[in-house]
Give the backbone structure.
Amino acid sequence: MDASPEASAQQAHPLETSDRDLVDGLLAATTPSDDQLVDAARLLIRYDGFPGAVALKADLEKVIKLWKLSRDQLNARVQQLWAAGYRPGQGGSLESPAVGSGFDASDSESPA
């Protein structure tokens, strides 16, 4: 087994496939919604320093350039959103997996 140093340096992130769909949606947004701003900031943090997902990281950088934002400006806007009471899915869409596992605790049995 002769693994090249280049191949071993690149890792596959376990969420890369699902995150790719999100990033593709972000690339299509010319004017980002609050949810999209938060998603972009969250994904930039997730992949920062990760040794892999090169194409996904490059597309995230394209997203913020498309939106005419720097990473610092994006982070400042997202911090303002959270400070103003933003919570994921508050716009009525519960399809975004931004926070949590998606597990619906209301379907589980609770101890009596």
Summary: Helices lie at 5-9, 16-28, 34-47, 54-66, 71-83. The chain is about 50% helix and 0% strand.
